[in-house]
């Protein structure tokens, strides 16, 4: 490990990582599915076999976080245990069992003159992931990149540096066991924050950056980097309770969307309620949420229904609480609900609860979000729930990938054109 | 038109274009296929009906270019005539006849618990195209954007400003006739070069930039813009003549790849020849090329075959001539050919000529180019030839779109998730 502040040494370390990643990516791009899947299974085995060492490393990170006065939520995200390691290992096995995203024939066609075209999925190259706190993100990301024939350079927060190093070492052993280049998965071995700045300037080496962190990280990437980025931004997720909603479904979905886990980007932050069901449906829903410990902030109409609801201020409609807090607003109709989502939403995940199929069709067609839901919880916004075997992030932009990003979204494509001496005329 | 140099006025013009484009893009995203196709057909009709006015406008541009001492090649690219207008109009009709790229169900699946997923193609938003000299690019780009439910802001070179304005006016009339917002297609109405700089800073308004121009434009976009870019870079295209190539096919394909049109990005710039066929195949090929007026630069082995071949210097292997010049090198085998392409190519379009199916399979799998060809001319690198009805450019990067970019590549997607009160557990 280099001494923080030794910029020249850090530059050499980063250049070495970059060079190794590019070379590994070229081999990974051509690796057969059997080898990639063997590497994932071997990595799962190594994580279980090395559980004691990984938990020791994690204990160092947890001790440092405790010393630094970290919150209980933060510690919970950071902490590993036998159960979490088993879940990580079974996630790897699950990804290994999925079809190879590379080499898929995405389209094929033939011209009348016999020239044949195939559009075939290929690996992307080198992914750079910058993430915070949860060490398992490193494994998910590494697994997605192995599966998709890419190389990845991971940069976790300083708070998880020992845990990530131990987990990544197990993955690298898995790659080696399968005869693949272990440098397909590398972690920046330095806690120095300057490493992030260097990663942001590795254009030509890193093909796409995925920042998974707070607004300051995102802003820094947007300002400093010339590398294409898959942003993982806010999830200001809405549910709209329509005039023709079924009350039982509504209660279940709303409670789950808000309270299952409040700290994830797919948690509902604002509930929009058609005024026609404010009196029939909303009181029971407010009771459910209050019983579960949720703080409620509403407009005047909502406040009038329950004294525990405090008045919302304008900022509430634009806030991703990531906490047991919900803003609630009455709307005149579907169009007003969609206008609210267009103005205040973050194009991440938004849903409608209704038995009116026409209203549902209109909502899912018109709401411009990565995920639009009908009668389902916003907490399904997750690559694992989508069946991708995990995710490297949830893309909130529209270019290249949108929504949960799994291995198949970490691919590009090429056209293969086959002729028999075909020339272009005129 | 504003006075060049009046920065405030120009800023207002650009902000107005941006605002109008965003509003138009929202309507276009939801426009039915019938309306979009009607707009394309009406635009085709308008271009034919207004041919005289368009040719008058073009004549102004041509006169100005003549005054400025433009080359014959430049004038040829700039000049319109009845035949070219008819081709432009028929291109529009061709795009109208293609299926709607928006709303396509790209994937769908269902979980055992009944939760149903659809991945559906959506429009992207606002495209910014910066291009040079050929006025028909404006129509191709406008048509691709109409078809894909996007809005486009076009910035042609000052040399084509009158031609582009006249063509775009016809397209806007087509949109109006179909009841769609004419601001889905707008051209920057100012020749002021500062307009380009402003476009590069319209993040949040322009969703993706497509620069189609020389290296200075590309470098400027890379340095100045924070907007995602689909680059249209060099085409240093190769053909590799394998040991088991059929001579007749090879002669036809090589001559076409180099000489059909030398100024397009899909023109072959370097020919790699397996040394085993240097004596059997290459002399006839050199004669073909020399007869067609091609200048030949070769390594020592090639120079020895024909006194008209002059020695290549190292720069030749990295040069996109866009002219009747070809560099030729002998290689020991397929691997050396692929190594040359990896080192000197631009990942655009590269091909192999061989009857050896194994060699062909190895080449198309391993060469990392947007288009890889077997026994076909590199000049097929074109969205029209691919059946896309045209192209807005040829993407040389790997993110989002690669190779010829047609309407279907100017889309994003969303996930529609349909449940019946589904909640996420645990």
How do the strands and helices of this protein lay out in sequence?
Two copies of one chain form a homodimer.
Chain A (H helix, E strand, L loop, with lengths): L6 H23 L3 H17 L1 H17 L4 H7 L3 H15 L8 E6 L5 E8 L2 E6 L4 H12 L3 E5 L5 H17 L7 E3 L6 H7 L7 E5 L2 H10 L12 E5 L5 H13 L8 E7 L7 H10 L3 E4 L1 H4 L6 E2 L13 E7 L2 H11 L4 E5 L3 H10 L4 E6 L16 E3 L7 E3 L5 E12 L4
Parallel strand pairs in A: 3-4, 3-6, 4-5, 7-8, 7-12, 8-11, 9-10, 9-11, 12-13
Antiparallel strand pairs in A: 1-2, 2-16, 14-15
Helix pairs in contact in A: 1-8, 2-5, 2-7, 3-7, 5-6, 6-7, 10-11
Largest interface summary = A-B, 65 and 65 residues
Shape category of chain A: globular
| Strand/helix succession of chain A | HHHHHEEEHEHEHEHEHEHEHEEHEHEEEE
* Strand arrangement across the biggest beta sheet of chain A: 10-9-11-8-7-12-13
Count of DSSP-assigned helices of chain A: 14
**Class by helix and strand content of chain A?**
alpha/beta
List keywords for this structure.
14 helices; alpha/beta; 7-stranded parallel sheet; 426 residues; 41% helix; homodimer
Describe the model:
The structure is a homodimer of 426-residue chains. With 426 residues, chain A is α/β, with parallel strands linked by helices. Helix content of chain A is 41%, strand content 20%. Chain A has 14 helices and 16 strands. In chain A, the strands form 4 sheets. The first copy, chain A, has a 7-stranded parallel beta sheet, sandwiched between helices. In chain A, strands 5-4-3-6 form a 4-stranded parallel beta sheet, with helices on both faces. Chain A has a 3-stranded antiparallel beta sheet with strand order 1-2-16. In chain A, strand 7, helix 10 and strand 8 form a beta-alpha-beta unit. In chain A, helix 3 runs antiparallel to helix 7. The radius of gyration of chain A is 24 Å and the shape is globular. Chains A and B meet through helix 10, helix 14, strand 13 and strand 16 of A and helix 10, helix 14, strand 13 and strand 16 of B.
